[in-house]
Amino acid sequence: MLRVLVSSAIALLVAGAAMLAYTNRYALDRAEQNASAHTNFIARTIVRDRLRKADFERPVTGRRRAILDRLFSSEVLVDGAIRVKLYRPDGHVTYSNAHDLIDTRPIEQTVESVARTGQPATDVTHLNDEGGKGPNTKALETYAPVYLQGKRVGVMEIYQDYGPVAAAAASSVWPVAAVLGVVLFVLYVSLFPLLRRVTRRLRRQVEEIEHQAMHDSLTGLPNRVLFRDRLEQALYGARRSPGEVAVMFLDLDRFKEVNDTLGHESGDILLREVGQRLAHSLRAGDSVARLGGDEFAVLALGLDDADGALVVARKLRQAVEWPFTLRGLTLEVEASIGIAMFPDHGTDVDTLLRHADVAMYQSKEAHSGAGIYSPERDVYSPDRLKLLGELRRAIEQGELVLHYQPKISLRTSEVIGFEALVRWQHPEQGLLGPERFLPFAEHTGLIKPLTRYVMREAVRSCARWLEMGLDLGVAVNLSGRDLLDLHLPDEVRLLLSETGIEPGRLELEITENIILSDPVRTRTILGRLKDLGVRLAIDDFGSGYSSLGYLKRLPLDVLKIDKSFVMSMMADDDSAAIVRSTIDLAHNLGLEVVAEGVATEHISAVLAALHCDAAQGFYYSAPMADSEVAGWAAEINLLRAAALEQLSA
Fold it and tell me: What pLDDT was estimated at residue 400?
């Protein structure tokens, strides 16, 4: 407001000065016009009958000059007039009351112009600028043409003291200036209340705009912009005084179902209530923001370690999971929280936000509720993104290699097949395991060409084994994206046709979570694959949430028990019970059972006693290169044959 008042005062002063200048100039112009009219009047009346034509033809001297001196002294040089000149048309002075100017010719061309056009003229100058003696008074020059007997014979010039002229102009200006000053002052004073009201309104509008720019319109919580600013300030403080800062990303599980079932208006109500609960559950100094959709962020300060952050996260989850009532319905909402710690998981805002987001998705996938960022599981790290760019080239240039882990029949001890496991022979980093590139390949479109590559190479290897006289099958793992691809059955049929192997020698393995992600479409794809004669296996059974009753509705042939149960069955009674009951129930459903992760002879014997059909693990062999498969299988078959002969003998 101060700037507006100052600028308004300056503007009003400039406007007032301009108006005063204009008024003064107008008054002076009017005074000069009056002087010019007065001179013209004298030339046409007072001196017209007293002057002769000869007075304008040659310098006036002697007695005639004395007569003109008396004439102009008594009739013209009064009321401020201080000098008079008569000119002939060419500009020469023929008479002046200042006798030393007679028979001179001024440099300026004003006289000639007036003599030629007959138009009066005025000018402001000093009395002696063109000669003469005495005080050099500021004067107003007025030129008027002189007519004798109807003819223009010359020009008369009268000098008037400019002081009375300026005084007359000023006397007419000051009243105007006084009135104008009062008007401008009143106008300026009247701006104060108006400016005060406008300023208050603008301040409120600016505050409202700033609040909207920094807060979420739905929940009223800080938005991403304000959260980033608070995080930046928190990191600055943490660098100066050591302390842990936690960034938490919270996402509501299955929030889309609320919108789809009850409508977006109910979803908005739920988000507002979630925001209020989170805000009321915070510790002093912590802050919460809504980042968009059903995603919230929490900034927790002054933590001792990651365990303290997990305690805060569990408290937030408890607040969210307390039942909500919407439109008469009671809803239970769950949330997944990802945590990134400063400085362990990042020292700048962007890195911490990204890692907290990644941790949230890791928590959601693991159904753990809340989890700390794990670099090993970050498929979006810069190094892995670099690998992602190189993976496409690796697929095209054949840098991927397959290793095969044997599957052993527990009834006959013979090798019945191999599971294909992909490796990447990286030109710079050497041989990379699948955990280095498969996770982020599954999150991109590269998983499809990668799976097709593995399947093609595995089936071709199986065809070569058959040519060597080895009666073996091969198993290939499928991803979730593969089971959503309606073209997969046609591609498998074409591959089998090209290689000429029997469909039953190809086994496709899928996990429980893949089946549950889209059951209808998955059953359609699996049904078409089963019609081709391909064997279908459920992999890592027990690590998900499906049941044998649900799996019975799928066209499966094999159930593979997850290695976590097999490896702990000798030390954990619960794991042993799960393995035993899974084998019995699977057999009752007509499924073949394969145990994964067999590491000792004792576990192999126990599984055989439980009538498990087959097993695989490091007890039998680690995954081997394709070039080693034939020799290893032949050696195992020879050992088996020798053992059988010894038994028969």
Answer: 93
